[in-house]
Design goal:
The complex is a heterodimer of chains A (about 425) and B (about 210). Helices cover about 45% and strands about 10% of the residues of chain A. Chain A is of the alpha/beta class and about 425 residues long. Chain B has a 4-stranded mixed sheet, covered by helices on one side. The longest helix of chain B is centred in the first third of the chain and has 13 residues, at about 5-15. The chains are: A alpha/beta (about 425), B alpha+beta (about 210).
């Protein structure tokens, strides 16, 4: 198991963003085959068989999610979640930049399986150029009869609407995304009812991540069983890992599931930069718990990483070398959650504010040990008690870092400056 | 001042694109901001009337999202990411450099009103090219102080909107016609330069607000 290019196989092809080149590379064959070989039901069954799990963070089996839609309730809606704002994640942007039609084809295949006549792509406001690109591609596909009425003579109708957000991480949470799409402040809704039962405009709705959908043309063409054989038993296929931080070759690498994390670091990322050693890394994105060098042996498998107390989440890998101050990193993440808290529930709205205040004072070396102990208190009062996962995850990294690097946190207390910076000054200037 | 005819047409077309008109709020607000440079009360009221909503409903939505401006900003908008991946690769140095060069703190606008800049904890989705920033919605990655200088230099020496430069896109042109070529990223956006403004204050749950 190693790098395996499925979704990224055509990346770099000149003009791939145009319909002509995409079709020359076999594009929209998956959609044609879906119409020819599958009914909506058998297509859902094929996706179930493939073992495809959502790439948006939670890893829920896609076919199973589709199966939750109540029969005979129409209209239904499909939303592609392109709100990608998880710190450390940039794969969806790459998938759109490099091969936008692959996503649109996947979206149409899902729409056919779900019998949806209007599909949305909700893309974060910061991805301005990517939204314009998608709009151009949708127009091109519409003109070619791939979007609209009676697509490719199949009798199936589907329109695609590209919808730009305006700067709110929480709109990546599926019910907040739906609220935002309805023209409201993007705040999460109570679940249940789940979107599959009552989603957009109160109708059954499926929300799927960009990468999840981009897998579908390949699953249709090569078969669910083929896909299932790729990767590990419970994590099939490949995944795009967004690697950043203190490494020689930051970037996105598509890996077969099951490859050891250390191999991703050494072979693809070129190892830790400046010949330094690894201190810690964060898989999954800003929400997930810190892992240590000993965890490099873990396979890229959702369950294996979950057992180690973290998660593959949305496919980020942030590597930190020996000069990194974990208090500083935690502070940046806590600031992020404080900024992005939607304000709907008190534990998160207040808790992230206190967290951020404490972390800033700790980072500057002005916190007392007594005050440090309130950090744990605050996090305990948030984790599991917030209205949506944003508030819970706002505590995960900082708490895991506090546990793993207790000395480092305590050394900051009353130090007046960052002790890690002082201790590693020689390395940094070397 | 009423919105330009083209903007009104764009807003009407956006309304008709969705199963429910209200869904068009965010794109309609973008249309207003693209024309005026920020959201005016009158502009939001026009959106409300076209979407058949109360002006307060539109305003309440606008304040939730951090990318809409409620007052005029500089000609160019610079956002420097300071989240983890960028922080690990020198974002603080970039922030200091931008602050020194533009002579105003994060959230501020230069005296000549060419630039508004801010540092942000919102990861921009460019961590593989950290440290990164966006200028007028376009990505700039693998920044060094020298590269930042070159970018700001280029933008700062351009003819300004209102200086009679013909290169400005017609405000309110349909989005599909406004696709920029990658090298056109320094095209100035038309923004009114009216009253001076204080640094933008983002809504934030502050103990004193509660
Ligand atoms: C705070 C928060 C932010 C999220 N952001 C995203 C996101 O940016 N993109 C995404 O695909 N999923 C995001 N999710 C997960 C979505 O709620 C949802 O599970 C996902 O889009 C489902 O798609 P999938 O089944 O294809 O993974 C987020 C969840 C939470 C709680
Ligand atoms: S946990 Fe935070 S983001 Fe989620 S509903 Fe509560 S305030 Fe909003
Ligand atoms: S951390 Fe700066 S772009 Fe992601």
């Amino acid at each position: 198991m190693a790098e395996h290019r499925l979704l990224t196989q055509d990346f770099g092809t000149e003009g791939l963003q145009t319909l002509a080149v995409y079709q020359r590379r076999g594009g929209y064959q998956g959609l044609r085959e879906a119409f020819r070989r599958f009914t909506p039901e058998s297509l859902t069954a094929e996706v179930k068989e493939s073992g495809l799990r959502g790439r948006g963070g939670a890893g829920f089996p896609t076919g199973t999610k589709w199966g939750f839609l109540p029969k005979d309730t129409f209209p239904r809606y499909l939303c592609c979640n392109a709100d990608e704002s998880e710190p450390g994640c940039f794969k969806d942007r790459l998938l759109i930049d490099e091969n936008p039609h692959q996503l649109i084809e996947g979206l149409l295949i899902a729409a056919y399986a779900l019998q949806v006549n209007i599909a949305f792509i909700y893309i974060r406001g910061e991805y301005h150029d990517q939204r314009l690109l998608l709009e151009r591609c949708v127009a091109e596909a519409r003109a070619a009869g791939l979007i609209g009425d009676n697509i490719l003579g199949s009798g199936f109708n589907c329109d695609v609407i590209v919808h730009g957000g305006a700067g709110a991480y929480i709109c990546g949470e599926e019910t907040a995304l739906i609220d935002s799409l309805e023209g409201l402040r993007g705040q999460p809704r109570l679940k249940p009812p789940f979107p599959a039962i009552k989603g957009l405009y109160g109708k059954p709705t499926v929300v799927n991540n960009v990468e999840t959908l981009a897998n579908l043309p390949h699953i249709v063409q090569r078969g669910g069983a083929w896909f299932k054989a790729l990767g590990t038993e419970k994590s099939s296929g490949t995944r795009l890992f967004c690697c950043s931080g203190h490494i020689n070759r930051p970037g996105t690498y598509e890996m077969e599931m099951g490859t050891p994390i250390g191999e991703l670091l050494d072979e693809e990322c070129g190892g830790v930069w400046k010949q330094r050693s690894l201190k810690a890394f964060q898989p999954g994105g800003g929400s997930m718990q810190v892992l240590l060098p000993e965890h490099l042996a873990l396979p890229l498998d959702m369950d294996a990483v979950a057992q180690a107390g973290s998660s593959l989440g949305a496919g980020a890998m942030v590597f930190m070398d020996e000069t990194t101050c974990l208090v500083n990193v935690s502070m940046r993440l806590v600031d992020f959650y404080q900024h992005e808290s939607c304000g709907k529930c008190a534990p998160c709205r207040e808790g992230t504010y206190f967290e951020s205040d404490l972390m800033h004072r700790l980072e500057a070396g002005h916190l007392t040990r007594d005050e440090l102990s309130t950090l744990t208190d605050i996090c305990d009062n948030m984790n599991g008690k917030c209205f949506c996962p944003l508030g819970d995850t706002a505590t995960w990294f900082v708490m895991s870092a506090y546990q793993a690097f207790k000395d480092e946190f305590e050394a900051h207390c009353g130090a007046g400056s960052c002790p890690v910076r002082a201790a590693t000054a020689e390395l940094v200037t070397a | 001042m009423p919105l330009a005819q083209a903007t009104v047409r764009e807003i009407t077309a956006l309304r008709d694109r969705y199963p429910h008109p209200r869904s068009a709020i965010l794109p309609c607000l973008w249309a207003v901001q693209n024309e005026l440079g920020y959201l005016t009360a009158e502009g939001m009221a026009e959106v409300a009337s076209i979407l058949d909503l109360a002006p307060s409903e539109v305003q309440a939505v606008s304040t939730f999202y951090s990318m809409y401006f409620d007052h005029p900003e500089g000609d160019h908008h610079v956002i420097v990411c300071i989240n983890v991946s960028c922080g690990l690769r020198g974002a603080d140095e970039i922030v200091e450099h931008v602050e020194r060069r533009l002579g105003c703190p994060s959230g501020g606008t230069t005296a000549d009103r060419r630039f508004t800049w801010e540092s942000t904890v919102e990861c921009l989705g460019a961590c593989g090219g950290a440290p990164a920033m966006q200028v007028d919605h376009h990505f700039h990655e693998n920044l060094t102080p020298e590269r930042v200088d070159a970018i700001l230099e280029r933008l700062g020496s351009q003819p300004r909107p209102g200086d009679g430069n013909g290169a400005i896109a017609a405000p309110g042109a349909p989005a599909a016609e406004r696709i920029e070529a990658p090298d056109a990223e320094d095209r100035p956006t038309p923004k009114p330069r009216t009253a001076r403004s204080a640094p933008r204050k983002r809504p934030r749950p502050d103990a004193s607000d509660l």
